[in-house]
Specification:
It comes from Mycobacterium saskatchewanense. The protein is of the alpha/beta class and about 240 residues long. Helices cover about 40% and strands about 15% of the residues. It contains 8 helices and 8 strands. It has a 6-stranded mixed β-sheet with strand order 2-1-3-8-6-7, with helices on both faces. A two-stranded antiparallel ribbon has the order 4-5. α2 packs across α8 and α5 crosses α8. The termini are close together.
């Protein structure tokens, strides 16, 4: 049996009151794609509702602390928080980082303890253009190629989405490598291949900002195609 778990690490650009002094004059940065992943929380909520799955989401800006980075990663803290006193950074970790990651891991562990396969979809979005280069996809499915369960889900999901909505360009391990540092990578170290399937879903922010029917259609098709993809999965 499969249990779905949905997470959204970059769902908003909120800065808690105790740390706002660190971000004075940086509203434009917080409102940009560097401050959060536009559309990722909307997608996460839609997936959670469709699959009756628990949702773990954060609306605290990734510029305070990046919940999708490991402790010690150079991008865990932004320029605004990297220079803060060590006690302040430790407080941010204890208040925002550890509880979030522990909650996702606890849900995966609960599913696995019941003998289920945990299918974890981590909802993200990416800038349509970065450093002058246009990204050539509407949807990215990120996974570790060495984990057959993840490869199977992503191959089937891509195939199902291409069949039902060929107008959307879907690529695997794009615009980032799925085996890079992230929450899913952390959880892969905790759980066996047969127990845990961790996928980062990336949606092009150009579609999000354009809004309208295309954005609504994409969310619906993502859900329908994921349901189709998982219906005939190999047994764990």
């Amino acid at each position: 049996m499969d249990t779905f778990i949905i997470s959204c690490e970059h769902g908003g650009n909120r800065i808690p009151a105790p740390y706002r002094r660190l971000f004075r004059g940086q509203k434009a940065l917080l409102d940009s794609h560097r401050g959060y992943d536009p559309g990722s929380l909307v997608t996460a909520k839609a997936l959670s509702s469709a699959f009756t799955a628990p949702l773990v989401a954060s609306t605290v800006s990734r510029l305070l602390i990046d919940l999708n980075r490991s402790i010690g990663h150079p991008q865990l803290f932004s320029a605004a928080t990297r220079g803060a006193p060590a006690e302040t950074r430790a407080q941010i970790v204890d208040e925002h980082y550890r509880p979030y990651r522990a909650q996702v891991e606890r849900l995966v562990r609960q599913a696995v303890s019941r003998g289920h396969r945990a299918i974890h979809i981590s909802s993200h979005s990416f800038a349509a253009e970065l450093d002058g280069r246009v990204r050539g996809a509407d949807v990215g499915l990120l996974y570790h190629p060495g984990r057959p369960g993840e490869a199977e889900v992503c191959a089937r999901w891509k195939e199902a989405l291409a069949a039902s909505a060929p107008e959307f360009r879907v690529r695997r391990n794009y615009p980032y490598a799925g085996k890079g540092d992230g929450l899913t990578s952390h959880l892969r170290l905790r759980f066996a291949q047969s127990d845990y399937v961790g996928i980062e879903l990336e949606v092009n922010q150009g579609i999000v900002f354009a809004a309208g029917r295309r954005w609504t259609t994409l969310r619906r098709k993502l859900i329908d195609s994921l349901r189709t993809a998982c219906a005939g999965l190999s047994a764990p």
